[in-house]
Amino acid sequence: MGLLTIGAFAKASRLSPKALRLYDELGLLPPARVDPATGYRFYAPGQLERAQLVAWLRRLGMPLGRIREVCGLDPATAAREVRAFWNQVEADTAARRDLATFLIDHLSWKDPVMASTTNPLHIRYAALSDTGLVRDSNQDTAYAGSRLLAVADGFGPAGAPASAAAVEALKHLENDSIPAGDLLNVLRDAIEQAQQAVRAIASAGPGPQEAGTTLTAMLWTGSQLALVHIGDSRAYLLRDSELFQITHDHTLVQAMVDQGRITADEATSHPQRSLLMRALTGASDAAADIRLHDARPGDRYLLCSDGLSSVVATEDLHQVVCAVADPGHAVRELIALANRTGAPDNVSCVVADVLELQQ
Length: 359
Description:
Layout: E1 4-5, H1 6-13, H2 17-25, E2 33-34, E3 41-43, H3 48-60, H4 64-71, H5 75-108, E4 121-130, E5 140-144, E6 148-155, H6 159-168, H7 183-203, E7 212-213, E8 215-220, E9 224-230, E10 234-239, E11 242-245, H8 252-258, H9 264-267, E12 280-281, E13 289-294, E14 300-304, H10 306-309, H11 314-323, H12 327-340, E15 347-356
Antiparallel strand pairs: 1-3, 2-3, 4-15, 5-6, 6-7, 6-8, 7-12, 8-9, 9-13, 10-11, 10-14, 14-15
C-alpha cells in the first residue's frame, strides 16, 4: 500500500485533518512525506498504530507533551507511564469528588431553627493510645479536646514524630473562631499545615520518605463534625445502635475492592493490605477527604488506627461502643480488646459522644 493522503489517513486513524496538522507542528506525528510544491501531507500506513495510540491517549485526557514522551517509549515502559498517569487522574477525580460533596453539604446545610425546648449540643470525649504487644515503640498519636478529635498512625523510622507533628498542627483549631463560610478554607489550610509539619520532620532525616503518617480528625462546630481523612485510620459513627464506617481507606487493597478485583473478605487477609496509596509524607502532597456530618444527640463517634480496626472484628467493635457508656471506659475496653487478640501493631482510639447540654 502506498502513502495515504491526509484525508484518507484522517479517516483511517479517526483523527481530524486539523488535529493531524497540529500533531505535525508539535513533532508528535510528522507525515511520511510533504510535497515540496504544494505542502500537502502524506502518511505511511505504518503510522496508523502511532496515530491510534495518540487518539486513545487524548481520549484519556493526557496532555500532548506527555503523549509525545509516551510515544517515544518501548511498550512496557509506555504501559507503566499510562498506568501512572491514570492513577493520578483517579486520585485527582477522587479529590474533586470529595470537594464537591463537601461543597454540596456546606452550601445546602442551614442552621436549624431550634425550638425553645431544644438544648445546645456538646461532646464528651476520651482518647487513648497503646504500644500493643509486639512493637517496641508507639508511632501513633491520639488526641481529644472540646473541639478537635484526631488519630494519626506514623510509619517509617520517624513515624512517631510525624504523627505527633500532624496532630499538633491541628490543635490551634481548638481555640480559633471559624465563621461558617470559612470552614472549607480553614480545613484545607489545616491539612497543608499538617503536611508541612510532616515534611519538616522528613527533611531532618536521611531521606525524604523517612517520615509519614495517616491522619483522621474531626472538628466540632457546635452542630456538625467536619471530617478530615487521609490514609487507613478510620472514623465510625454509631447512630440508633447501628455502626457505620464513614471514612474510606486509602490503601491498595481498598482500591482493588472498589475495582471489583477482590472481595472485602479477601482484602482482610491480603498480603498488601497495609500498603497506603495516600498519606502525609515528606515526599509529596496528597489530597485528603473532607466531609461534613450533621450531629444528633445520642451519636457516638469512634476514631481509630488500623491497629484496632485490622485486628478486631467489626461486630466486636460494635458491641463495645454500644455497651460501654463512658467514653473513657470505652477506649480502655477497645484497646484491651485489641491486646486480647494479639495487638501486633500500635493501637489508638478516640470516642466522642454528642449530648444535649442541660441548662
